[in-house]
Amino acid sequence: RVKMSAEEILVCAVELGKDFCLYFDELECDALCKEKTLHRVLRNVNSQLLVVRPDLNVAAFEDVTDQEMQSGKGMHFSIHCYKTTTPLAGMPVAFSVQVEDKSYYMCCERECGEMIVRFKEGKVPKEIPGESNIIFFKKTFTSCCSKAFKFEYSMERGMFLAFEEEGCLRKLILKKLSKDEVDETMKMSL
């Protein structure tokens, strides 16, 4: 047993090869592997639902009637949870949504020097070998608010999913947050 950063790690050699190399079993790799999928709606602090409209290339929080919610077009999300070897960053998740007969996944892209949230047609992979523009770290919103969450973009620390008023829309965006700040536009419940 080797003691490393207050954790005990058990390493068992499986065999000594002809080339005098040790071969190990049950080592964890750094790849993210899909563990489970949750099916939820995403609500903002105003209890509005996130609705994806790929035809308009927009995702925004909207007031939704019960009848609209049952039809579920673009508002019932699959939240794909991945296993990780670095749990302190938060639970790695990816988002996808079904609109009509097509599946779309959420990703972030840089456009004109700004990070933009996009929904692209396709499926979320079962394994992600390295960094990915579809992964967000799910974290509790505050220590006293365990039922609400914020989602940090994995490729740019300090950037979180949030909403921004744009005319009559509350558009889904990525927003920079300083460490000590609490920003209600990032608060989401599942």
TrEMBL record:
Q: Specify the signal sequence span.
A: none
Q: Which GO terms describe its biological process?
A: cellular response to lipopolysaccharide; cytokine-mediated signaling pathway; immune response; inflammatory response; positive regulation of cytokine production
Recorded superkingdom:
Eukaryota
Q: What is its main location?
A: cytoplasm
What family name appears in the similarity comment?
Belongs to the IL-1 family.
Q: How does it assemble?
A: Forms a ternary complex with ligand-binding receptor subunit IL18R1 and signaling receptor subunit IL18RAP at the plasma membrane. Mature IL18 first binds to IL18R1 forming a low affinity binary complex, which then interacts with IL18RAP to form a high affinity ternary complex that signals inside the cell. Interacts with cargo receptor TMED10; the interaction mediates the translocation from the cytoplasm into the ERGIC (endoplasmic reticulum-Golgi intermediate compartment) and thereby secretion.
Q: What is this protein called?
A: Interleukin-18
